[in-house]
Write a structure and sequence with these properties.
With 154 residues, this protein is mostly helical. The protein has helices spanning 7-32, 48-80, 91-109, 123-149.
Length: 154
Amino acid sequence: MNRTRTGPVRAAGVALGMGMGGFFDGIVFHQILQWHNMLSAVVPADTLVGAKVNMLWDGLFHAAVWLLTATGIALLWNAARRDDVRLSTRVLLGWGAFNLVEGVVDHHLLHLHHVVEAAGESVFDVLFLAWGAAMAVVGALMLRSDTRSAAPMR
């Protein structure tokens, strides 16, 4: 039996979700709300040198999430060209995974920054993880549902 493949689209969706999650974090929390920067718990941005160091690391962070997003687009482009791939969008798993990894590593393990830097380690860091976990669970359930409903190719 010839089945529709979803794996290539899953990989694209996860990469796109991670990229979108990173851009959301960087644009909303770093730039618009200015709650934290990439290294703001280690190098406070209250001096010109501190602000420049944080700006550099924010830029490197944005470059990395841009590469994740570009990778996701390339994977989606390649998947769309295949006859045995069923297209769907599953970015929640990737976005949730980004929040979980970034939150655990940067907020809790390395203490590079916190969601609201002025509050330090706080309920905002926990809510960030909960939001990421919820998106990852919903994304995983969507993938599971997608796999079960994949119909044979005709």
